[in-house]
Known about the structure:
Structural class: mainly alpha
Oligomer: single chain
Amino acid sequence: MNGSRLLAPLLSLALQSLPQQKLLTWLSVLECMEVFAEMGAAKVWGETGRWAIIVLIQLAKAILRLLLLLWYKAGIQTSPPIVPLDRRQSLQQGDAEAHSTGREQIYVGKRSSRVMRCLESTPSLHSRHWGAPQQREEKQSQRALEMDQPPTPLGIQETIAESIYVTRPLLHLLSLGLWGQRSWKPWLLSAFLDITSLSLLSDMKELNKRERMEIRRRTILLLYYLLRSPFYDRYSEGRILFLLRLLADYIPGVGLVTRPLMDYLPAWQKIYFYNWG
């Protein structure tokens, strides 16, 4: 019974075809294992094997995303491809449903008009909420409707913009092979493609909640270019480390966070899928 309730947020996948579901599943698997695959390949096969795995994974992701975009008309590609399951919310909802049939039994005060839940429909303590019953139901139904909305149809301009975003990692890897990791050309090309894609998508007004969140996420990720080489090596590294060291030395307690972060930044820089993925 609980298992069926936990799968409730995934019911929207039933509206998709089976091949499309498989593509989304494989895309999610690749995104989950890419960092581990890169680090494992570097450990076993060295730098050459590491870059070979990076190219293969990015090529497979690009093919899957292009199939979803051009063949299945999946719209703007969100990350992660499949919405993570909120087990706490699902369990709370299932527990509340087990204590009541249909809507919760409530009592409305005659003079105060205050809404109170009857004792018979009170859920267990770990899944109890303290808001008004009808507000809880309205929020849950509204959240479900927002997350289950179909993808927004894309025009020619939006399809080109999304294709640019999907193929950007491959073009960046190609430019790295042509000009090397110390050249500015791969950095500038990647930044230009990301900004161009966002600019072309900015004209879209009718987007669902997941798509708006994805556009916002891509915009925020533009800040990663401050941490990507060669910009980081020549401009950002010294200033960021100086700021972190200043915070650690003069603000009590902040060093517990900033000093491990200073030690972690060089390791983070070496992982391609952390930095560019």
